[in-house]
């Protein structure tokens, strides 16, 4: 409807911008990665959440255009800021299920990423756990193609689906992000702590990097550190922010 037209126009006119949420290394307590998150700055409605417009984009075949815009914007801003590699080791992008399950679109995205040579070595792609479910064999192939080109792969919202364990068995993932619902209960619920502990132990034995998402308190951070989690992300550590704030945020680490 009206909103789809506006979204198409927003894509064409570059009304979409990106923000960056820091990911902290729990050993050094310094920023070691970021997640890139898209924002729609609407002329009259203010910022529209991706929770609203990504599903719309999925329904109208606009996700690959959005991904390209996000990559181009991140390449420009991060390149100019001079923080790629030092300190950023990973730049994570969210790719939606509709795009991930389309092999041609993933090939196009991979090629587009590699056109940005400063950025491409750091790119990590996040897929929500449920997005990989539709066809496990196809997912394996798509992930293998990404990895062959040097792009690493992460499972977002890990633990929320019904196939978490099957995924660890069959997919060669580089990273998992423990869903924030487990992190939220960490302090008061021994069972959540036990689950996180088990996820970390299992991931480590597969040589998979573990990130905890949704860290909102110092206490959660402490517990995650004690459990040996590699990296953490959340409002306590840093909200999604524009590039200028990210640069300041990183400078304050030192
Ligand atoms: O950043 P925020 O909390 O508003 O994100 C809401 C949802 O939108 C999250 O599930 C997030 O993964 C998703 N999202 C954010 N940026 C992008 C993007 O560039 N592409 C896709 N496909 N999803 C995104
Ligand atoms: O689904 P995904 O993990 O990609 O969603 C990313 C979004 O999660 C971020 O853009 C941000 O809006 C939200 N987020 C990040 N940190 C926190 C947090 O500590 N608490 C909550 N409730 N949401 C967070
Ligand atoms: Mn994510
Ligand atoms: Na997530």
Automatic annotation (TrEMBL):
<protein>
    <submittedName>
        <fullName>Diguanylate phosphodiesterase</fullName>
    </submittedName>
</protein>
<keyword id="KW-1133">Transmembrane helix</keyword>
<keyword id="KW-0472">Membrane</keyword>
<dbReference type="GO" id="GO:0071111">
    <property type="term" value="F:cyclic-guanylate-specific phosphodiesterase activity"/>
</dbReference>
<keyword id="KW-0812">Transmembrane</keyword>
<feature type="domain" description="EAL">
    <location>
        <begin position="1"/>
        <end position="254"/>
    </location>
</feature>
């Amino acid at each position: 409807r009206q909103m789809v037209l506006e979204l198409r126009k927003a894509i064409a006119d570059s009304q979409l911008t990106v923000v960056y949420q820091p990911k902290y290394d729990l050993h050094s307590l310094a920023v070691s990665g970021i997640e890139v998150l898209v924002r729609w700055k609407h002329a009259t409605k203010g910022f529209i959440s991706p929770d609203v417009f990504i599903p719309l984009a999925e329904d109208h075949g606009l996700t690959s255009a959005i991904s390209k815009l996000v990559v181009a914007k991140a390449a420009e801003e991060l390149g100019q800021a001079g923080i790629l590699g030092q300190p950023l080791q990973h730049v994570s992008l969210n790719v939606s299920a509709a795009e991930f399950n389309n092999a041609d679109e993933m090939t196009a995205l991979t090629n587009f990423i590699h056109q940005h040579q400063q950025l491409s070595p750091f790119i990590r792609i996040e897929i929500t756990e449920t997005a990989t479910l539709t066809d496990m064999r196809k997912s394996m192939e798509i992930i293998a193609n990404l990895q062959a080109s040097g792009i690493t792969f992460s499972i977002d919202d890990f633990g929320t689906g019904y196939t978490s364990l099957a995924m660890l068995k069959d997919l060669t993932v580089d990273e998992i992000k423990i869903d924030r619902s487990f992190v939220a209960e960490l302090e008061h619920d021994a069972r959540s702590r036990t689950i996180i502990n088990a996820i970390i132990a299992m991931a480590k034995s597969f040589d998979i990097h573990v990130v905890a998402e949704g860290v909102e308190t110092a206490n959660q951070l402490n517990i995650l550190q004690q459990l040996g989690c590699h990296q953490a992300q959340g409002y306590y550590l840093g909200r999604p922010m524009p590039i200028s704030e990210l640069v300041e945020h990183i400078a304050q680490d030192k």
